[in-house]
Specification:
GO terms for molecular function: quercetin 3-O-glucosyltransferase activity; quercetin 7-O-glucosyltransferase activity. Belongs to the UDP-glycosyltransferase family. Keywords: Glycosyltransferase, Transferase. It comes from Arabidopsis lyrata subsp. lyrata. Helices cover 44% and strands 14% of the residues. The strands form two sheets. It has a seven-stranded parallel sheet, with helices on both faces. It has a six-stranded parallel sheet with strand order 10-9-8-11-12-13, with helices on both faces. Helix 5 runs parallel beside helix 8 (216-230) and helix 10 (284-297) crosses helix 15. The protein has helices at residues 17-32, 73-76, 81-104, 121-130, 142-149, 151-156, 190-205, 216-230, 254-264, 284-297, 323-327, 339-344, 357-366, 379-389, 403-416, 418-435, 441-454, and strands at residues 7-12, 36-42, 56-60, 109-116, 134-138, 210-212, 234-236, 271-275, 301-304, 331-334, 348-353, 370-372, 393-395. The chain has 458 residues and is an alpha/beta fold. The two termini are 22 Å apart. It has two domains: 8-162 and 188-247 and 438-455, 3-Layer(aba) Sandwich (Rossmann fold), CATH 3.40.50; 254-434, Glycogen Phosphorylase B (Rossmann fold), CATH 3.40.50. The structure holds uridine-5'-diphosphate (UDP). Uridine-5'-diphosphate binds next to helix 1, helix 12 and helix 13.
Length: 458
């Protein structure tokens, strides 16, 4: 590892797993290149720093110090994501400014701030005021970013807000997307959704560069399109988690060992791994259809049910009496897994996913075919690309989540369509592997990123 003493990078992740994970992986990449890293993190969802001993963590308090936490579990559990984003910005804008000023005023030279693109304006204004360069990390894919960047046009042309009568219409300006694939989030504050998206796009335009957790062979056209729109230096250096073997999310706990032990007992490529990420919530009725669909498929399955994921319940209590005994060792239901470990396990034959960008990329990197049930935001765009462009998965629409449909989809991906999908998945995995070789695009882009960042204080 080269030494770059006195070169510190400050990172400001959004406090959700799908955003924190890639940021911490990026921190690992910078650390490996000799930078020191400070993570400024909201007190909301503050992570366990002992899991990431290479980095300095600073908790940013909410701006109502001394008062009750405005973002306590009981407050946030009923908020939609857009309202939660708004609150986060309101609660942390001022204290972020103070924390960043303190860090930049310290002894060590600070190269730059790397902030999650979704923080948008608040980081733009503060970084400018404090005089530190700002690079943006976009944790989603380039294809969905193109769709977000096209929001003004989509509104002008009447595609947004989405009308039920137009769901299957192609969006000719964003092929191969259909109207139903446009990245929206259900919210009681629709104007705020437009504002959050606009803030993200404008914040990227005014930045000193955008880092992407994607690779050129995967999203070449979309990256070109975004680059034309944003006109700032571009660094697609993904997949982040494949840069090094000792990356920060590889640590395992006892439950992970139990899961691996269960997977070790299954036949190669026999298991359906089902997980819908860290945020998506489902209704009890859907939960039961999924449970029966998995059971009736007669395939071994590993299913992540986060506590609170099923609306109105704590965990598994709505399963019918005897269900768990009935599935026996054939299925395993857990609260959380080390997904990177699971997808890399030879027993896993398919990933039933909500198509969050990290999950999509992680599956691609292990050559695992996907069953796509997108829920909101960029997940619909990712699903369209998985199914129609990269052709490494099948769609199972949320509106069709009935046990028979589920059983058919699972069996189709594991059996009838299995060989074909697996073959293409392995080809895509090869191109993911190649981009990180010495001559690969992501390795070269990382060199450019390091030089770019080092040029800031010269
Ligand atoms: N994840 C995990 N264990 C789980 C579920 C999710 O480690 O049981 C990780 C997964 O590997 C990914 C992240 O959480 O890195 C989820 O991000 P994604 O973009 O897929 O979805 P989101 O949670 O943002 O909807």
């Amino acid at each position: 590892m080269e030494e770059r003493r006195g070169r510190r990078i400050i990172m400001f992740p959004l406090p959700f797993a799908g955003h924190f994970n890639p940021m911490i992986e990026l921190a690992g990449i910078f650390h490996h290149r000799g930078f020191s890293v400070t993570i400024l993190h909201t007190s909301y969802n503050f992570p366990d720093p002992s899991r990431h001993p290479h980095f300095t963590f600073r908790s940013i308090p909410h701006n109502k110090e001394g008062e009750e936490d405005p973002l306590s579990q009981s407050e946030t559990s009923s908020m939609d994501l857009i309202v939660l984003m708004l609150r986060l910005k309101q609660c942390y804008a001022e204290t972020f400014r103070q924390s960043l000023a303190e860090e930049v005023g310290g002894e060590e030279t600070v190269c730059c701030l790397v902030s999650d693109a979704i923080w948008g304006k608040i980081t733009e204004v503060v970084a400018e005021e404090i005089g530190v360069r700002r690079v943006v990390l976009r944790t989603g894919g380039a294809s969905s970013f193109c769709a977000f960047a096209a929001y003004p046009l989509l509104r002008d042309k009447g595609y947004l807000p989405i009308q039920d009568s137009r769901l299957d219409e192609l969006v000719t300006e964003l092929l191969p997307l259909k109207v139903k694939d446009l990245p929206v989030i259900e919210t009681k504050e629709p104007e705020e959704l437009y504002r959050v998206v606009n803030d993200m796009v404008e914040g990227a335009k005014s930045s000193s560069g955008v880092i992407w957790n994607t690779f050129e062979d995967l999203e070449r056209l979309s990256l070109m399109d975004c680059s034309n729109k944003l006109q700032v230096p571009f660094f697609p250096i993904g997949p982040f988690h494949k840069h090094s073997d000792d990356h920060p999310l590889k640590t395992k706990n006892k439950d992970d060992d139990k899961t691996t032990c269960w997977l070790d007992k299954q036949d190669p490529q026999s298991v359906v791994y089902a997980s819908f990420g860290s945020l998506a919530a489902i209704e009890e009725k859907e939960f039961l259809e999924i449970a029966w669909g998995l059971r009736n498929s007669k395939l071994p399955f590993l299913w992540v049910v986060r506590p609170g994921m099923v609306r109105g319940t704590e965990w598994l209590e709505s399963l019918p009496c005897g269900f768990l005994e009935d599935i026996g060792h054939k299925g395993k239901i857990v609260k959380w897994v080390n997904q990177l470990e699971v997808l890399a396990h030879p027993a896993v034959g398919a990933f039933w996913t909500h198509c969050g960008w990290n999950s999509t990329l992680e599956s691609i990197c292990e050559g695992v075919p996907m069953i796509c049930t997108p829920c909101f935001s960029d997940q619909h765009v990712n699903a369209r690309y998985i199914v129609d462009v990269w052709r490494v998965g099948m769609v199972l629409e949320r509106s069709k989540m009935e046990m028979k449909e589920i059983e058919n989809a699972l069996r189709s991906v594991m059996m009838e369509k299995g060989d074909e999908l697996r073959e293409r998945s392995l080809k895509l995995k090869e191109s993911a592997d190649f981009c990180l070789t010495k001559d690969g695009s992501s390795s070269k882009n990382l060199e450019k990123l390091v030089s770019h960042v080092l040029s800031f204080d010269s």
